[in-house]
From TrEMBL:
Residues 1-28 form the signal peptide. This is Lipoprotein. Keywords: Signal. It comes from the Bacteria. It comes from Acidaminococcus intestini.
Length: 147
């Protein structure tokens, strides 16, 4: 009888956790690469009003994982179109202007470069240099999950 009560509480807690996870993801705003910039100036690309308004919020984006430096990683570059070459490994790599650096909690296995990935995380804007890699980014998703 006691074990049955514990099991019921466990199932109820599990259901609540799953429901809350789904609700949080459902509340994430959808962001498309085409919505990121409103133009360019002499100082570079200009963040769009949409991008600025979502700063600090949960967003979901779909794109492609650029080939990473190693198979198991805690960050990667999400691009609008597939990139077959490692952007860090070639000096003549043609970086697209519409990229997002995605930091995951823990690690994620690299996906094939042509497989779509849907990512949800907290949008973070502004110049940032990664202390480990020296990689500079303007747009990031933090604490992201990958589907």
């Amino acid at each position: 009888m006691r074990l049955e009560k514990v099991f019921r509480k466990f199932l109820a807690s599990l259901f609540l956790f799953i429901t809350m996870s789904i609700a949080l993801e459902a509340n994430a705003a959808s962001l498309d690469f085409s919505e990121m910039y409103s133009g360019a100036s002499s100082e570079g690309l200009v963040f769009s009003d949409t991008l600025n308004s979502l700063n600090g919020s949960q967003v979901t984006m779909t794109g492609f994982m650029a080939p990473p430096l190693k198979p198991s990683i805690n960050f990667f570059v999400l691009t609008e179109t597939p990139m077959a070459v490692c952007p860090f490994c070639s000096t003549d790599a043609d970086w697209p202007y519409n990229i997002v650096v995605v930091y995951v909690d823990g690690s994620v296995d690299a996906l094939p470069y042509d497989q779509e990935a849907t990512v949800t995380g907290t949008l973070d804007l502004g110049s940032y240099m990664d202390g480990d890699t020296g990689f500079v980014s303007q747009v990031r998703l933090l604490d992201a999950t990958v589907e």
